[in-house]
Structure formats: structure tokens, C-alpha cells
């Protein structure tokens, strides 16, 4: 059977649900036609965000310039402090004024349950040689701390970043209006590493939880502007619409918080960027993905019956109509009436690793907020 992390051939999608497989490109076309989500506030500077993930000990040689660099986890492969420090040293050399990093399931040093042998041996050696009272291995973090330099490392935590105003040309008029970029901006960034264990990951994988467990509800601060997770949410850049392996509980949490940008990785084959709109079209699309995801867990014989099931799935046809109707209304609102997409944002799967090739071929993603 194919790995759940590999993209299936198009016939598999078509057999499992021809309705959703054919609706998928139309849905994404309507998303693109609606235009860029959520423009910067008037008179405030735009912020150029560069997103990478899943570099797995490798270094991208030409990272684009920007105001903020985000790495969404899997800095390395083996997970040792030595490997992680090497990746951090590379990131520290990059010129971006602000940098934020979270870990992924391969960065096992950050999860004490999953530390590799060399780090465990060092920890126990430090305990036996120390004359101080050390209550737990966690107390050794001060001794085995990664040297982050100017990088903000987030693990179930937030940081508020301030971006100063852009330089303004001299003006002889004291009453001149403020030009775009003349006001500073602050963005609150939250990062969390946990991933659902949809396959039996070994003990060396960090921050895994059972796929049916809710590890997200109520965990993300409501004032979060940028959300960084290692796992994708269900139905967005996670091999959806049918073979989705993102977390449904994370998706529900993003609906509560509605960040302007959500960056993740983990699923290399689902690399990409998509606009999201917190509206009826998106709700209907996600319901379709959820119902087809459950259906896709059955055998191939069940998948072959997808065509007949879609014919008689009245709720599926209604949700498909909602996706199209509300999507078209969104395009009319943005392009004809000139409305702004306030309830919107971006989702980015920034995995730089090309599938399981062992090489970085997916370019860093850049978005302006």
C-alpha cells in the first residue's frame, strides 16, 4: 500500500470521489480569482515573510530576502543537538532582521522522551558528575542549550515582533500625508511542534500524539497573527481532498483564531501556498474533504464504489453547490464591487524537501502581509 505521505495517482482520487476530485480545481481557481487576502493596514509598512521548512540538515543556497524568516520544523534528520546546532548556525548567518523557528518530529532533541543516544548519554554523564541537585533531565537544558543567537525559538509559546517604519523621503510640507510604510507594525507569532501519529512513528520521533487525540483545542492565543505548526491542518495542503493527513483538531483551532498566516510543513508532497477565506465556501469545502477522508480509509473495493456513492450523496451535492456559489460571490465582491477580504489569510506548506528525494527542490515561499 502507498505511504500516506505520498501523493496518489489521479485515478485514485477520481475513483474515491469523482465529485470532489473534479470540484477541487474549480474551488482553487475561485480562491485565486478573489485576489490577495487581507491587505496591510493603511499607512503601515508591508512585511515580507519568507517561509521554509523540512530542510533535514541541508541548506538552501539562495534564500530570498525579507523582513521575517520562518522555519516550520525538521531542521535535521537524526535529531541530535549537534545536527540541530549546525542547522541553527546556518540560519543565524542569513540576513533577515527577524527569524522564528519551531521544531518538527525529526528534531528529537527538543522532546526529552525522544532524545537520541548521544544526547541521553551526555545528560546522564552530566548528572553523575554534577555536585548540584538536579531534579530532572529537563534541568540540564541550561547545559545543553542550543545557541540560537538572534533567532526566536518557539515551542508552545508566542513572541511579538516589531517591524520599524520604512525610511521616508524628505518632505518640505509639514502637512504631507503619511506615505505607505510610515508606521511601524507588531505581529504576534505562535509556534507549536506536535503532529498526529498517522503511521507508527518510532520512539525517535518527537512530539507525536495519537491521531484521534485532540492536542490543539484552546492552545493557540486568540491574538495570534502568524501561526507556525509542523503538521498541516486537515483539508489544506495535506494531500486533500480525499487522502488528507492533516489534523482536524488543528483545523478547528485555526477557525477559532483565524490567523492572517499559517505556516507548516511535514507533508513534503503537499508543498504549496493557498489563500483561505473564513466563509461558507471554505466550510462547505472542508465538510466535503472530511466526509471523503473517512471514506478513503476503506479498501480499494470501497473506493471503486465512490462514483455510485457520490450520485446519491445529497449533502455532498449541496456542499459542492455552496463551494461554487459562495466562491463566485466572493469573486464578485472582490473584483466587481471592490470589497476587501478582511476574513481571510494565507496557508503555506513550506516543505523544501522534494518528496522523499533527499534533496531540496521546493523553493522558499514568500508572502507579503
Structure description:
- The chain has 369 residues and is an alpha/beta fold.
- It folds into two domains: 16-45 and 279-341; 46-119 and 141-157 and 183-277 and 346-354 and 361-368, Metallo-dependent phosphatases (Purple Acid Phosphatase, chain A, domain 2, 4-Layer Sandwich).
- The chain contains nine helices and 13 strands.
- β9 (226-229), α5 (248-257) and β10 (261-264) form a beta-alpha-beta unit.
- α1 crosses α2, α2 runs parallel beside α9 (314-336) and α6 (280-295) runs antiparallel to α9 (314-336).
Can you give me a brief rundown of this structure?
The chain has 369 residues and is an alpha/beta fold. Helices cover 30% and strands 16% of the residues. Residues 47-269 form the Calcineurin-like phosphoesterase domain.
Low-confidence stretches: 124-140, 172-178
Largest sheet: 6 strands, mixed
**Continuous helix count:** 9
Strand content: 15-25%
Shape assignment: globular
Q: Roughly what is the average pLDDT, rounded to an integer?
A: 85
User: How many β-strand runs?
Assistant: 13
- What fraction, in percent, of the residue positions are helical? 25-40%
Strand order of the largest sheet: 5-6-9-10-12-11
Rg (C-alpha, Å): 22 Å
* Domain module tally: 2
CATH names the topology of the largest domain as Purple Acid Phosphatase, chain A, domain 2
Q: So, CATH architecture of the largest domain?
A: 4-Layer Sandwich
Structural class: alpha/beta
CATH superfamily of the largest domain: Metallo-dependent phosphatases
CATH class category name of the largest domain: Alpha Beta
Distance N terminus to C terminus? 41 Å
> What is the element string, with H for helices and E for strands?
HHEEHEHEEEEEEHEEHHHHEE
Protein name: Calcineurin-like phosphoesterase domain-containing protein
Domain Calcineurin-like phosphoesterase: 47-269
GO molecular function, one term: hydrolase activity
Pfam family, one: Metallophos
